[in-house]
Every structure is written in C-alpha cells, then in structure tokens.
C-alpha cells in the first residue's frame, strides 16, 4: 500500500493544565504526510507547530500537555496502522527513534554532555536493532560520513562540547537517521546555524530523503527554508491550520491574510537591487508608515584602525599561554553618522568580538578606536565609563541581557539612574516615551521579562539602549532569534529610529537578507579579517572575494523556483584561528575595485 500516508493527523487538540485552567496549545489541526515527501509546517512562535510534532512522538505529555482529542494514525513498517494517541508507552518506546526519528531545535540540549558522540550514536542501534558493539560502531562511523562530518573517527571519541554548533546538529541528524525511520520530524533544525552550514544541512536532508524514501515533517518559521525544502506547506496560526497547499501555491498565490502577511515580512535577497540606500519594509496592515530611504551623512563617527584582539589558550602544568586564538586580526573601517555598517560572516569569524572590542568589553591587543573625536583606547576606567554614554549595545538574547527580578520600567530607567542624567520626574516621562517609541503598551512598565515574548523583550532591550541618547548602537545578532513578522517590525523600528534620531548602527549578523535590507555599508569577515568592504550595493551586486561569493551562493531565497542544488554548495572547511605564541600574521592589504569597495589581496587569502 504505497499510496497510504505514513502519518495522518486528524482533528488534533492539545491542552496544557495551568493554575488558571486549561490552555489550548493546538485547537484543531489535520494533515497527512506521504512517503518520500517533505511537509513544512510554518507559523510563528506559539502557533502550535512544535506541539503538533511532540504530540506525534507522544512527548507532549512529558511537558505537561495532554492530547485532548483527535487521532494520530501512523503506518508502521509491518503495514499495520495504529493510533498513536492511545498507544501505551512501552510500544511508543519501540516506535520512537526506530520508526519516527526526531531532530530537535537546540543541538546542545538534545545531546547528553557526559557521553561521547560514539556512545550516543550506538545506543539506539544496540537497543532497537540488536547490533553488537562492533557492528554498531561501524554503522555509527558510516552515519557520520553520510552527514559529511570531517575526521569522523576522531569525532566518535569526542564529547558534544568539543564540537561546533553545526557539527553537533549533524550528530543529532545522524542519530535521528540511525535506525532508518519511516518518518523524520525536524523541529527548526537550522535556526541556530550559519548560512553555509544551514545550506549544507538542508541539502543533506534532501539527499537522504531521496535515497531512503523517508517522509519528512519539517517545522520552521523561515520562509526561505520552506521554499528550498517543501513539497507541501501547512500554515499554522494560534493553534489552527489556516492554509495548506503545494509550495508553489503558497508562495505564488496565498489565500489567507495571515499567509500573505507572513510572506510580506520576509526579507528576500535581491529585493534591494538597484537601490543604494536602505529603506524600511512594507508591512501589511500598516499603511501610514514612512518608507523613505535613509540617507545618513558623510561625517565620520567611528573610526577603527588595525584592531587586533586575541585570546590566550592556556595549557600544561603551570597554565602557561601556549597559543593564541586570533579572533580579530588587523581590522579597519569607518562608520559615518546616521548610517549602518554591517559585519557579516559565519560563527567564529570574529564579528562579535570586533563589536565588543570597540566598546572595550573585551580588551584589544592593539589598534585605534576613535568615536566622535575620543580615542577610546587611551581612556582610563572612569573616562571609559563616561564615554559609554555615547555607545550602547543590543545583545542577541534579550532574556539573558535583562534582569529577571526587575520590572521592565526600572530596567529601562537604570542607565539614566546610573549616570544621573535625569531627575526622577523626567526619567519617568522618558521611560514612558521610550516604551511608546518601541511600540510597547505602558502597562508593560510594571511587568517582568518572563511575561513577554521574545520580540517584546528585544524591544525593551532597544528602549534601554536608547535611554541615554547614544550616538552609536552596536547590535549583535539583535534579530536572529525572532520570528519573521516580529523581526520585520523590530528592523523597521530600528530604521525609523535611525532616520529620526540620526543613530549610527554597527549591525552584526549572519543573515544576508536582513543585512541587505538595513545596511549602507557592508564588511564581510572571515577568520578575523575583513575580506571585502564597501557600499552595500557594490558588495551584494558585484561580490569580488571568493568567500563573499560562496556566502551569497549559500543563502536560501524565499522563492521555490530558485532552489539550490547540492552541487552549487562547495565550501572549504574553515581553518583554525589558533596559532602558536610567536606567530605574527601579515598585515591586511586591500585593492580598491571600485570607489569605496575594497577586497583583501594579502597572502592570508581564502
């Protein structure tokens, strides 16, 4: 019976018991997954997409939920169909991992930190397939080769913390595929990854699906990934399915208002072709917004010259410095008032360290940093504190950067209180004004961080960064953890504030489509150096450095007609930035290919 769907979800309803009575996580959802097809489930945080997948694995009960109605039919290998909603936990244990594999969103928490990668990979094989230790190890090695992990023999003996995020995610995929499941559930498997690694993992999953005939249920909020992967799309909103169709129908002719709004909020690479200046995104339901391009000025605000930041690696009996991590190596750029300079690159390329070095949150080894005429490197502790009135930072994870025990109004007022810039009446007025600016209701002043969603918390972080009227804001991956529609609103907010207050942004990100939307200038970083720097239009429309070209090639585009094939993605593994103590790399040398557009030429190449 090949035409029979592998999984059929019928009228699923999931409830969570809370102190205030039951909360409905999924109200009424039905869809099928057929053999060898990828069904993408899209929606924002809280739409119930992960809950549906956890219900299918019957893991939702371990998170305090219960399946209150509906049937979950699953077609087993032997051809019998069972309803997972009322299967006992013993049989579920056989099915989980063996017949339904799951890839979780956060690879670090999905792996056990105290066991080696090899031990975790062989566990399922020995349990479900009854292989001997030797057979299981041979199969584990085979799996790591399949997911293209370099030096697989070495990886089997390593622990999860010794691997990078992308490698850990590949191990999780290898574990999910170990027993050749009939159905693979992937819950946001690429959200935390870099563009290049994401492109490889998507191509890998696509290839494995074709080779093994596995059905894939792919959960994501990234519409570009949907365009790349999906055969069919299910759009969810507030616990209900609002639209379902083939990937072409959804992208080319969306019917439901929510789907239209979702697609309008996606920054697409190539949208800004021919435009020299950034401009806010056109969002549905906001007719009166200002969409003028943001010109900026020609007056320099921040000048960075030959910045070098290294971290010591200690080892041996006396904990001596045995090597250095060359995180930022000879970086120079200028950022003008009212403009945005973006630093892009993969994890570990040094972009966040560069941002922190400018504020001296990390002490640089060498270089000059000049903000509005002040030499930041020459300041002592007290002068640096005063200089920080002009520069603020927005971090990637707003939950970690807010104090969970303080009310939000107090947190936004705290910088003003620390510097004594406003009287208490003025301070209260300014906090209310800032909340209005970031479009949060004033009732939130008395709330705590855990009562807000991710996007709302990020707005509080932006309000707090603006409290002292800074000239420069360094935004370190400020929108990477947000949903598409929330991300679009936060980006528009940042651009509106820039247009009105003349702010300068140093925008650190790995999302090329977002960078294209917000930047005046772009610097591409690789292994601690800027390999290409110039006006955004020049860098994006005419990339010169091979690394920039590879990075552009890897970006998935939110259009199902422009899918990438695996052949197009040829990335060299990134060499190690760790060098022995006496090592002195050469300086960065650039050639100017067009006015203001510089490309690295020195021997430190790509």
Automatic annotation (TrEMBL):
Keyword Hydrolase: yes
Location(s) in or outside the cell: Cell inner membrane
PROSITE patterns: ABC_TRANSPORTER_1, ABC_TRANSPORTER_2
Molecular-function GO terms, alphabetical: ATP binding; hydrolase activity
Domain of life: Bacteria
Sequence similarity: Belongs to the ABC transporter superfamily. Glutathione importer (TC 3.A.1.5.11) family.
Function field: Part of the ABC transporter complex GsiABCD involved in glutathione import. Responsible for energy coupling to the transport system.
Protein name: Glutathione import ATP-binding protein GsiA
Biological source species: Thalassovita autumnalis
Name of the gene this protein is made from: gsiA_1
């Amino acid at each position: 019976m090949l035409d029979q769907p592998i999984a059929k979800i019928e009228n699923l309803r999931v409830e969570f018991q809370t102190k205030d009575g039951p909360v409905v996580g999924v109200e009424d959802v039905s869809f099928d997954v057929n053999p060898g097809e990828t069904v993408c489930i899209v929606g924002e945080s809280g739409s119930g997409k992960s809950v549906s997948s956890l219900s299918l694995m019957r893991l939702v009960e371990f998170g305090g939920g219960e399946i209150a109605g509906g049937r979950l039919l699953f077609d087993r290998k032997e051809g019998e169909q069972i309803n997972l909603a009322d299967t006992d936990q013993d049989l579920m244990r056989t099915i989980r991992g063996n017949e339904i594999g799951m890839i979780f969103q956060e690879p670090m928490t999905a792996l056990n930190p105290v066991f080696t990668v090899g031990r975790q990979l062989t566990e399922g094989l020995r349990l479900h397939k009854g292989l001997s230790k030797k057979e299981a190890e041979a199969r584990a090695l085979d799996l790591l080769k399949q997911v293209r992990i370099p030096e697989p023999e070495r990886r089997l003996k390593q622990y999860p913390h010794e691997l990078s995020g992308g490698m850990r995610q590949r191990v999780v995929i290898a574990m999910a595929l170990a027993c050749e499941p009939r159905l693979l559930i992937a819950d946001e498997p690429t959200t935390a990854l870099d563009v290049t690694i994401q492109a490889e993992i998507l191509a890998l999953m696509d290839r494995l699906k074709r080779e093994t005939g596995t059905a894939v249920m792919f959960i994501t909020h990234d519409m570009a990934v949907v365009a790349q992967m999906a055969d069919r799309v299910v759009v969810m909103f507030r616990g209900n399915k609002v639209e379902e169709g083939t990937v072409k129908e959804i992208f080319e002719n969306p019917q439901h208002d929510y789907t239209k709004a979702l697609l309008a909020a996606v920054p697409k690479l190539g949208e800004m072709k021919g435009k020299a200046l950034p401009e806010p995104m056109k969002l549905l339901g906001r007719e009166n917004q200002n969409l003028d391009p943001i010109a900026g000025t020609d007056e320099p605000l921040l000048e960075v010259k030959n910045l070098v930041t290294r971290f010591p690696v200690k080892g041996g009996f006396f904990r001596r410095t045995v090597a250095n991590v060359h995180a930022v190596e000879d970086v120079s750029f200028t950022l003008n008032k009212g403009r945005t300079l973006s630093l892009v690159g993969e994890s570990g390329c040094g972009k966040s360290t560069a941002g922190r070095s400018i504020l001296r949150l990390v002490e640089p080894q060498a270089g000059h940093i000049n903000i509005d005429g002040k030499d930041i490197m020459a300041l002592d502790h007290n002068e640096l504190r005063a200089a920080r009135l002009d520069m603020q930072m927005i971090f990637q994870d707003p939950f970690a950067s807010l104090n969970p025990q303080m009310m939000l109004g107090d947190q936004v007022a705290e910088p003003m209180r620390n510097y004594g810039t406003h009287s208490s009446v003025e301070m209260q007025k300014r906090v209310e004004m800032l909340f209005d600016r970031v479009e949060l209701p004033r009732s939130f002043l008395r709330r705590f961080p855990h009562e807000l969603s991710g996007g709302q918390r990020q707005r509080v972080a932006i309000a707090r960064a603006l409290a002292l009227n800074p000239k420069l804001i360094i935004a370190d991956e400020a929108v990477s953890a947000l949903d598409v529609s929330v991300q679009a609103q936060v980006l528009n907010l940042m651009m509106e504030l820039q247009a009105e207050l003349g702010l300068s942004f140093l925008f650190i990100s790995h999302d090329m489509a977002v960078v294209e939307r917000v930047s005046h200038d772009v610097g591409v970083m690789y292994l601690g150096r800027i390999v290409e720097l110039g006006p955004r239009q020049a860098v994006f429309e005419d990339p010169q450095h091979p690394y920039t070209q590879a990075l552009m090639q890897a970006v998935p585009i939110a259009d199902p007609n422009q899918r990438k094939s695996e052949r197009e993605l040829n990335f060299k593994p990134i060499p190690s930035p760790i060098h022995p103590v006496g090592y002195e790399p050469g300086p960065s040398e650039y050639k100017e290919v067009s006015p203001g557009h510089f490309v690295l030429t020195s021997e430190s190449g790509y």
